[in-house]
Partial AB-hydrolase lipase domain-containing protein
Amino acid sequence: MIVALIIYMTLQLPLFSSSVNFSEPQDKFKDSALLVPDLIQKHGYPCENHTVVTPDGYILKMHRIPYGKKSFSEKRSVTYLQHGMLASSADWVLPGPRKGFAYILADFGYNVLMSNVRGTGYSRKHTYLDPERHSLEFWDFSWHEMGVIHIPTMIDHIINKTNENKLFYIGHLQGATVFYVMCSAMFSLAPIASLKHMISPLLLVVAEFRTGILISITY
Ligand SMILES: *[C@@H]1O[C@H](CO)[C@@H](O)[C@H](O)[C@H]1NC(C)=O
Ligand SMILES: *[C@@H]1O[C@H](CO)[C@@H](O)[C@H](O)[C@H]1NC(C)=O
Ligand SMILES: *[C@@H]1O[C@H](CO)[C@@H](O)[C@H](O)[C@H]1NC(C)=O
């Protein structure tokens, strides 16, 4: 079972931060000039690169922060972060430690995996299609392929690598939409989101699920 927690969060991109001075000369050691794994390591966090190939041949990069600075325990729940449109795994780390959502989760003791969908900077490769020479075939995809192929491939990869059978899925904008696409075979008839006001004796059975989780989906 996958417990899915879909949130909409406000990204604190440096672009909108008053601390950015665009007239400063480009410094190659500045955060904005670094690739995501190098940026994470620059801030003293561990980072792994994962390469995952989808059944339809797209070669995708995932970045992992296995643990943070504050908490390091053997049992760390897996959190899968899926970025929005025109974004990448950089979204979760650009604001830096204590602000970037990936760092916050890692410091809270989560095993954080950030994927990059096909066509983004880190995932612009295919086993036999060239994004420039075969542009019509390479770019012929939409939310559908992300939901039906990308997310399940990533989840299978994570399950295989971590031996966990549960993960938290956190999707921002398109990252949330594609999760719904993946689950589109499910029709919610009177779904239950909260049991807070329940008075039935059945509560004894379901009490465990009473708080916290917004959406719980059997996969
Ligand atoms: C921006 O950077 C330039 C060059 O380093 C500097 O002269 C200027 O004062 C800075 N502006 C602000 C608002 O910090
Ligand atoms: C991960 O990728 C980055 C950038 O491509 C590279 O600099 C780094 O050495 C890689 N890390 C590992 C552990 O392979
Ligand atoms: C799981 O990973 C191993 C090696 O890391 C690989 O040989 C195996 O094919 C993978 N299984 C699946 C279902 O992806």
